[in-house]
Amino acid sequence: MNIETTKAEIHELVDTTDYQTIIGDTHSRLKRFKDIQEQYPEKEFSIEELELIDEVLNGVPDKVFERQFELGEKLEYEQLTEEESIELAKLVKQTEQFSVVRLSNLIRLSKMWNTTVDELMKRFDIHPKPDVYA
Residue 59's pLDDT band (boundaries 50, 70, 90)? Predict the structure, then answer.
């Protein structure tokens, strides 16, 4: 099987728009994997480890956290509109889901490497963000 045959087969499976998106996403992901490996050169990671580390290191986007904090402050001062209350609930759910995935991935890595979640958090310089009101 040559590269042109593989490209043609992939192209048949997805339309042109999806094809470009998939290539872009794959390129970004591989770059993040390379960056992780360069940041932690003491160990050569497997693809599974790189996937887990990538998910662990990519925290809740700052924009989401900042908005949640902003709405939390409004809630504290009882200035939250009904629409903002709904938005805050969605943001809280989103950050909680992320936290569950992140912790699950840290647990998986800790088992793979025979270490603790606390040690991994130190290794990856993960610190809890300040409390957000919900």
Answer: confident
